[in-house]
Amino acid sequence: QVWLVESGGGAVQAGGSLRLSCTASGRTFNSFDVGWYRQAPGSEREFVATITWSGDSTNYTDSVKGRFTISKDDGENTVYLQMNNLKPEDTAMYYCMLRRVSGNYWGRGTQVTVSS
Prior knowledge:
Elements lengths: L1 E6 L2 E4 L4 E9 L6 E7 L6 E7 L5 E3 L7 E6 L4 E6 L8 E9 L2 E4 L3 E6 L1
Parallel strand pairs: 2-11
Antiparallel strand pairs: 1-3, 3-8, 4-5, 4-9, 5-6, 7-8, 9-10, 9-11
């Protein structure tokens, strides 16, 4: 079993920054990667960014490239999403998801609200 806890969400004005954290516990060894996803009201959940468990490769959706950075702290088993130059369209519930051989594990999410 794997548990994921997200934190760091909040309300900011456009152009502001937030750093989200996703802390993993449990059977995380041999995981494939950890990703951030978001879901706005009335919309489907969408991919934002992902990082391999080794931390050597990252991937981003086009709309956040150059503004968001995903990183991993191995000692803390935590994955971060640094979000800069936030836009109102970034408003959503943000979830992290860990993939490993036993399946995909999701956290409960953290809300990000960006006002214009």
